[in-house]
Amino acid sequence: MLDIDREHPQYRARKEVWRGYRDLYTGGEQFRLNAQRYLIARQKEPGDVYRERLTRVFYENYIGSIVDWYAATLFRREPVLTFEGGNEQGKSFFGEFIEDVDRKGTALADFLRKQLVEAMVAGASYVLVDFPRMGQQAGNRAEEDALGASRAYLVDYTAEDLINWSLDDQGNFEWVVLRTEVIKQDRVEDAEWRREKRWAYYDKQNFRLYRQVGTGEGPGTMDLVDEGLHGLAKQGRVPLFALRIPEGLWMLNRAGSLQLEHFNKSNALSWALTMGLFAMPVVYSEREWSQMVGESYYIQLGPEDRFGWTEPEGKVYQIAADNLTRLQEEIYRVCYMPQAGGPLGQSRAQSGLSRQLDFSITQEVLRAYGDAMKDQVRRVLKAINEAREDGLAIGVTGLDEFDIAEFAIEVDEAQKLLALGGDSVTLKKEVQKRLALKYLADARQDVKDRIVAEIEANG
Asked: Would you give the distance in Å from CA 237 to the centre of its chain?
């Protein structure tokens, strides 16, 4: 029997790394609460000094802003989805599905944006395709639709949730184990919160769901709460879809160590500057010194005695400040955004061609993310389409333009393209659909589907 709570060796190797990367991305109070994991103590540093430094800790979160910028820029325009075929009921379902993919009111673009952020933080994110479980068996498709059993929905999982898995010879999942944990209170009158762990096992045909409810007396027993065939059993595939990105596009893995170095150096410089504000008195005297020194006292010096204050010359401060600037620029550079690094407000001597080249690199990275997202959407929607037997041809385009150009310019370029295409009816239809869907990116999917159908019919 499968040990449901066993962890994959790769999972065990990376779970602490994921925890650190998530703190680096989130920043704020979450990072401050875990600062002792990242603020390095000096050699033989007194404990009370280190604790005081922890109370003064701050974090300049560059990598979090970079990840959010990529996600926001990529989804500036939503992906363009087309559903072609004669099944109007299937088109209607997908129109509603795109507006609410998880039965919580989350639109597809917002769901995908969250998936991309998770992949940039942890290197991968996962989508589970699921169908509602009904207490009665539907006799036909009409009854299935009426009961809501055909209403597919998505569940997002993080890299930490997938604790164990096995791959087949083609590199696809053979089985997976997902573990989640929630803290619940059934009634407001209950004195204690209870911790509930859940395990979900999926293979290419079946699923099993386990639950363990913890109480004040212990973790509780693990119970099997449900099992059976899952929604993609006919396809012979595990219903979990992985969004994996290349190591080079795993942003936290590329810049995490630099961000930690910047954090420690910036806090060290801040501490040194703070201590420099409280200068210590220095008395130069050959006689025994026993006088008390302070704001409410005075000292008496002999004719040959001298008095002064300790004050750093500042050379090391300048070196530290320059090093912090270099680290900041390096964070942006390894994240393929060299045009955004450096101090704010500093004029950088850079030619227009050089700036254009720098941003072209960023655009290529955005396109790589866009290709990964389109592939993920295509695989998920096709699996749902096949499970529901809707028979639709699904197209996924977009996520490849990141400059906000005037729509009039795009229309002018489309007219020139049509002029070159001669009498091609297919070219005319495709250009019209592309322009219409781009201009109406925020419209409901059913409206987009009607427009596409009308263009096809009147073309």
From this structure: 26
CA separation for the pair 128, 107 (Å, rounded): 16
Total tally of structural domains belonging to the chain: 1
* Domain coverage including residue 454: 406-459
Q: How many CA atoms lie within 13 A of 190 on its CB side?
A: 11
Q: Is residue 70 part of a domain?
A: no
Burial of 278 (0-12, 13-18, 19+ CB in 10 A): exposed
Report whether 74 contacts 402 (CB < 8 A). yes
431 found inside a domain: yes
Give every CB contact of residue 102 below 8 A, 6+ residues apart in sequence.
Answer: 111, 153, 154, 155, 156
| 456 belongs to a structural domain | yes
In sign, the C-alpha dihedral spanning 222, 228, 231, 233 is positive
Query: Does any domain span residue 179?
Result: no
d(CA 8, CA 165): 7
How distant, in Å, are the alpha carbons of 320, 366, 412, 440 from that of 405? 42, 17, 12, 15
- Single out the residue of 224, 232, 184 nearest to residue 205, CA to CA: 232
How much is the pTM?
0.79
pLDDT tens for the chain, 459 residues: list them: 458 889 999 999 999 999 999 999 999 999 999 999 999 998 888 899 899 999 999 999 999 999 999 999 999 888 889 898 888 899 999 999 999 999 999 999 999 999 999 999 999 999 999 998 876 666 666 767 777 778 999 999 999 999 999 999 999 999 999 999 988 777 766 667 788 899 999 999 999 999 998 766 667 788 899 999 999 999 999 999 999 888 999 999 999 999 999 999 999 988 888 877 766 667 677 777 676 666 556 566 777 777 666 666 667 778 888 889 999 999 999 999 887 665 544 445 454 445 556 678 888 999 999 999 999 999 999 999 999 999 999 999 888 776 645 556 667 777 777 777 667 777 777 777 777 766 666 566 666 677 777 777 776
